[in-house]
Write a structure and sequence with these properties.
eight-stranded mixed sheet; 12 helices; globular
């Protein structure tokens, strides 16, 4: 009877402990990496394997949904999410972009070189510096969109330290892959706004355009999401600099060909920004990678696709977390 009571008590207590351990509402901290200061959050036990989340263009750490972070932590990870340079509460470059975005976008379309104040590899160096500052020797990486591009560089910079790589809705940057429409690119680059109200409407327009045609968005909800991000930090010039870093990036096919990190590629069949062949192309160039295509997924973490995304990602991360644990014993 005592054993039965103890088992019941454990079943009651353990979910509570896990919930407390994986509370995504932790304080945001900062770390100095030379001239760059990164804002980050760490969710989970310090002793757990680290899963580093790398966000996409203009995205802040809050754009990783709390419930997704909690589910990832619940797999036994210490989840670290951060603001890339030039967005959120991390360092913003002081000077406005010197390059003309429309002109550089045209050069990109023509296959010409593009000027950028920093590179995606520099941003990967930021992420690696964050791991150094936190004393993390090995870690798993999950990157979305531009964050997936940064993650590719991170795995190339530190192949022994990156234990697994999960790339969501991202690209190899190779020439010849399908391009987004000019209208979508215009929305992406339209960051100047004369007022807060206009900025919120612009962001809601962009979110709607990046969403799946299979899902009907609630405009008020989109505006609420835009409002939360705007009030935390609004730096349109920084987003332009990040976009220039993407446009200036050469093809990463050679980089992908030399990766030997376990890799999962996840892409949506309805992605309007990076059509599905971008994900297929990435997977084709990473030896031994796995590819998961999600029907209807576009270029946003929409509620309707959270479970399909988690169903694709969680078993893979769980398997590689276990492999990493046994490798350390």
């Amino acid at each position: 009877m005592r054993a039965l009571l103890l088992l019941v008590a454990l079943l009651v207590v353990l979910p509570s402990v896990a919930s407390e351990r994986c509370d995504a509402r932790v304080a945001t901290e900062k770390v100095a990496l030379g001239t760059v200061h990164l804002a980050y959050q760490s969710i989970g036990r310090d002793s757990d394997p680290v899963l580093l989340l790398v966000m996409g263009l203009g995205g802040q750490l809050i754009h990783w949904p709390d419930e997704v972070v909690t589910r990832l932590c619940g797999q036994g990870f210490r989840v670290i999410r951060f603001d890339n340079r030039d967005v959120g509460l991390s360092s913003w470059a002081q000077a406005a972009p010197s390059a003309n975005l429309a002109y550089e976008a045209l050069r990109y379309r023509l296959g010409l070189s593009v000027a950028a104040p920093y590179s995606l590899r520099d941003m990967a160096g930021d992420a690696l510096g964050l791991m150094d500052a936190l004393g993390v020797s090995q870690f798993h990486v999950l990157g979305a969109s531009m964050g997936g591009m940064i993650a590719q560089h991170l795995a190339d910079l530190a192949p022994v330290r990156v234990q697994s790589l999960t790339l969501i809705m991202t690209s190899s940057g190779a020439q010849g892959l399908p391009s987004p429409s000019p209208e979508l690119l215009a929305l992406l680059g339209r960051r100047e706004a004369p007022s807060r109200e206009v900025a919120l409407q612009q962001q809601a327009d962009l979110l709607a355009a990046l969403g799946s045609p299979a899902v009907s968005d609630d405009r008020e909800l989109l505006l609420q999401q835009a409002e939360v991000a705007y009030d935390r930090a609004f730096n349109p010039e920084g987003v332009q600099r990040q976009l220039l870093a993407i446009l200036a990036e050469p093809s990463r096919v050679a980089l992908l060909n030399r990766l030997r990190v376990p890799t999962l590629v996840v892409h949506g069949t309805a992605d309007p920004l990076l059509p599905v062949m971008h994900g297929v192309h990435v997977a084709a160039h990473v030896r031994g990678s796995e590819l998961r295509l999600i029907p209807g997924l576009a270029h946003r973490f929409q509620d309707a696709f959270k479970e399909p995304l988690l169903a694709a990602v969680l078993p893979y991360l769980k398997a590689h977390r276990q492999e990493g644990r046994w490798a350390r014993l």
